[in-house]
Each structure stands twice: as C-alpha cells, then as structure tokens.
Structures
1.
Amino acid sequence: GAVVSQHPSWVICKSGTSVKIECRSLDFQATTMFWYRQFPKQSLMLMATSNEGSKATYEQGVEKDKFLINHASLTLSTLTVTSAHPEDSSFYICSTIGGHYGYTFGSGTRLTVV
Amino acid sequence: GENVEQHPSTLSVQEGDSAVIKCTYSDSASNYFPWYKQELGKRPQLIIDIRSNVGEKKDQRIAVTLNKTAKHFSLHITETQPEDSAVYFCAASRSGGNEKLTFGTGTRLTIIP
C-alpha cells in the first residue's frame, strides 16, 4: 500500500523558534496533502490542505502566517510552525489521498514547545 | 462544512461482549465513511469503511452500518478482546476528488477482562 513518511517523530523546541515537519510520499504521487493537529484526548482537526504547486487552503481560525505549508513537489509537503509557543504543543499528522490507496497517514510528529 | 458527531465519548464493555459506537454527519453530499482505531501517539489505522451506495459492511468481528436518510452510521465490534481497547474515530468525506476527512470526536473503548 501507500506509504507516507513523516519526520521528525518528536521534537522539543524553545519558545519563539521555528520547527519544520516533513511528509514524504514514498511510492506514489501526492498531489494533495492534509495537515491535522491533535491535542491530547481530542480529535484530529484539519489545519490546512495543500496542493502541489499552489498555495495551501487554511481552515477557519488557523493562522497561515504561523503555520507555513509548502508543497513544492509531488512527493514532499512541509509544515513549518513559526515562532512556536507552548500552546502550539500538539501532535501534528499529515495525510494524503491517492487512487485506490484511499487516505494514507504519516506517523505523526509530537511537538513540545518549552 | 461537514460536522460529525460521535457517541459515546467513553465506552467500557466486558470482554466477549459487543460494542457499538454511533456517528451522525451533516453534509448530505458526504459519501465515504471510514472508521479508524488510534493508539496513543500513533497514526489512525483504518479498520473498516463504507460508501454511500452500501448499507452495511462486515469484516470478521467488525461491521459498519449506514443510514443515509438519517445521516448516521455505526461501528459494531462483536466478541470484544482486550486488544480492541483504543480510541476509535469515525469520519466522513466526499470522495471522488481530493476531499478532506472530517473526524468525529472519538470514543475511548475499554475492554474489561
């Protein structure tokens, strides 16, 4: 089946710094990537949808200048959390959809901002 | 946009008994309804899904039913086992394009040995 590799799996950063999370589709072309955020004991909430070669579409309430998404190729999408604060600490997970594979999820990134 | 509600939020059942989790959705155009099992710190794992042209689907101990008219779908797990303990999420989307999944609020299922 389809595989999406997400890195890093966990990261600790200082408040005010930026963190980049990468998702790579290893065996198919991911024209669309969804980025979700999951706070402890809560559901997955869609942050934004990125399409290869175009600007991402952000969900209501998600700051596009804070959560920068780049989808420059069919195999790589990145999410950069800029000027991170403790309230940004969460589990971030990407997902793509393609052909008969349906929705494929990355392994997630646990971000802790201290 | 789509809104998916899920009940109950927590569920405890004796090992061997059945568990039922229910979801309702708001967008009548949604036509794809997957169920995911998520363990702590892990990605969601698809356990079963159903499309709107089908009313019921079964895979061993797991079944899903869909009522399009009422806009609700349910997950049924029979002969529960301790390894079924996890958080379960329902979701809905309009498939056929690059459509986002909207998740329910989740159900923490605990199987009591």
Note: The interface with chain B takes residues 31-32, 34, 42-46, 49, 51, 91, 93, 95, 97, 102-103, 105-108, 110 of chain A (CB under 8 Å).
2.
Amino acid sequence: DQQVKQNSPSLSVQEGRISILNCDYTNSMFDYFLWYKKYPAEGPTFLISISSIKDKNEDGRFTVFLNKSAKHLSLHIVPSQPGDSAVYFCAASAKNSGGSNYKLTFGKGTLLTVNP
Amino acid sequence: KAGVTQTPRYLIKTRGQQVTLSCSPISGHRSVSWYQQTPGQGLQFLFEYFSETQRNKGNFPGRFSGRQFSNSRSEMNVSTLELGDSALYLCASSSDNTYEQYFGPGTRLTVT
C-alpha cells in the first residue's frame, strides 16, 4: 500500500515559469512533510519541509503548501530554472509507538524538466 | 562540514554472497538511516540507528542487518544476496530530534 503518492511521473515547464509538483498521502498520522531533489548518480538533497501545524512554508524560490483535509501537498518553484531539472521526491514522517518519527516514507518521484 | 560519505560507491557481487556497506554521517549527527532505491519500488526505509541502537525498522527480511559504532559510523550487511537486491543503497544522517535527513551519494550494488 503506497502511503505517499506522486501521480505525475514527469513534468516539463519553460524557464521562468512556475513549476508545481504534487503529492498525496493516505496516512493521517503523518505530521511532517519534506521535499527532496535528486540528480542522477547523487543522493537526494533536502529542499524544504513543512509541519502539519502549518499550511505554507517558503524558502526563496521554493514554497510548499499543505492541505490537511485533502491530504495533499504541493511544491511551487518560481521562477523555474534549467538547473532545477531533476527528480523531486515528496516524503512524510509519522511518530511510531516509541514516540520517535525518524522514518521517512517517500513517493516515487516526479521528473522535472525545465526547458531554456 | 563534510557531508555524508558512503563506501564503496559501486559494488558487483554474485548471488549467494554477502556484502557490507559503510556510512559515515555528518559530524555531530547521531542518527543514521538506510534506504533502498529501486526503479520499481522507489525509496524504501530499511532501518535507523541512534546511539548504537536500532530505533526503527522497515519491512525487509532478516538478511538485511545493520549496526552503528560509538563514533556514529554505520554499516549495513546483506547476506545470501539475491538478484532482487540490486539497488542503490542510501544512507542518511540527521541531528537529534529533527526530521530533516541528509543523504550520502549511495552505493550502487549489482548482484549477478
């Protein structure tokens, strides 16, 4: 059962425009969400995160929105740049029975291509 | 600060053999997690260690094991390798009581 879903395997946008990457989740216990970017032959790089008590978090060109009632989050990149071309993973975390929540559940990723 | 390092970067093994992968976390990070990435399953959590104790475990068979040393370095072992174990194995570290994990470049394991 896939608890974190990224339904678009790929997305193509023009340089300077907005990129919107979407992620849905099914586990209502998730209380923290993260986005990672991954280039080929490298490990994922942390981009931005959001706690379930917030609905928006911004960091420069990156903004993450969380809609808890819809169990949906999105990553907005404005303006998009060719160097943003990579696979983007959505991840979520939930407390386990011991009270720690350091396991990340990942979506399968969306390949973003930003065309010059 | 230096990032997370993993050795070796590439490994080719034969079915039935065993393999040990190594991970050195960011200095000061005591939590180390391991993930398996395959094209079909994406990134899947294996286990997490904190202060030499396994704190979280994913749904992998007992052939997958790990340990952490007093300097927070971690090793992951896979015994009786199967073709399906071919994957990118990623290690991530984090500081105490934070959610954000920082990944190493991974070890690409090929089982033939």
Note: Chain B touches chain A through 24 residues (CB under 8 Å).
